[in-house]
Amino acid sequence: MSIPVITSPAEYAAVLDARRQPHQSGYYAMYSSLLDAITTDGALMQVPLDDHVVHRGDGVFDTFKCVDGAAYNLDAHLARFMQSAAGIGLAWKNGVDDIRRLTLETLRAAGRNECSGRVMLSRGPGGFGVNPYESVAPALYIVVYKLGAPFMDLHPEGARVMRSSVPAKPAFWAAIKNCNYLPNVFMKREAVDHGVDFALGYDDAGHLTEGAAENAGIVTRSGALVFPELKNILAGTTMLRVMELARGLRGAVKSVEVRGITEAEVADAAELLIVGTTLNVVAAREYNGKPVGAGKPGPVYQALQDALVADMARNPALRTQWRAESK
User: Fold this and answer.
1) Nearest-CA neighbor of 309 among 67, 63, 62?
2) In a domain, 320, yes or no
3) Is residue 146 annotated as a catalytic residue, yes or no?
4) Over the stretch 278-319, which tens digit does the pLDDT of each residue have?
5) For the chain, is the Cβ count within 10 Å smaller at the N or the C terminus?
6) Number of folded domains in the chain?
């Protein structure tokens, strides 16, 4: 049996239409600067094979959450996005304000009050070599897709966590949210293969770094909330916001600290917390097969989770709305 040869855009569109997959129903809208247009058809959300983000991972991204018709903490995500782009020598010709405008337009086209959004800036198409100067110009992609449920909604008993064997990223790469995520993929695969929810990394000094796509911190037995130093991790927008909210929780949190955290401190912690954009705040009930604290979600987890959920719902300074109708 011979392989069909597609010779026209119409034939290509027909093949895509015939090969639709169920998961594409969760892709709501995508903007591509190569087309300067938005599509709401999941089958048409395509990136050229010769874009260097595909075959070299040469690009950056950031992901944000939309709650009740508003993008939460969008400007913090876009600021980190631009910082990551600058870190690998990428820039968008019209700046961050244009990216923000295009993001809101894509959200309006998606028309979903609850969703995830992702912005990607790639080196762009133009060849299959490793030389970044093959690319004609950077390409911007913005996609809006189905929002995952917060972890604790699905697992109220808390998470199982292990130490990862994947080497930690060097400080330079840890601070750039780039599209070459192979170490992160290995960490997530390791967690799944071991039947746990998250794997956490450690640097050469033996200090806690981060998870595959989330930050982690501890609550000490004396009541301090501690997160790792930013030099060896990505500055998580949720982590930074949780730290700020924690400073306003009088009584629940004795202090907020940023410093090196050893594995012995993680094992001895009163609470081990995982935080992320989709996750919100997660309580770990187990680390390396042993209970964390009382082996169940603790009071600091609950206070921080409640504060973050309220912040997402009611903080007008961090809610960028686009007035979609519920679907």
Assistant:
1) 67
2) no
3) no
4) 999 999 999 999 999 999 999 999 999 999 999 999 999 999
5) N
6) 2
Tokens linked to 267: 């094992």
Cα-based distances in Å from 109 to 27, 218, 256: 12, 40, 40
**β-bridge partners, 142:** 31, 119
DSSP-derived 3-state class of residue 9: helix
Q: Do the Cβ atoms of 297 and 283 come closer than 8 Å? A: yes
Same domain, yes or no, for 101 and 184? no
Residue of 146, 169, 177, 231 marked active site: 177
Query: Tokens 């009740």 correspond to what residue?
Result: 68
Three-point CA angle 268, 273, 277, nearest 5°: 160
Q: Within a domain: residue 322?
A: no
Domain that holds residue 96: 9-145
Q: How confident is the model over 196-247, as pLDDT tens digits?
A: 999 999 999 999 999 999 999 999 999 999 999 998 899 999 999 999 999 9
Say what the pTM is.
0.95
The answer to whether the beta carbons of residues 290 and 160 sit under 8 Å apart is no
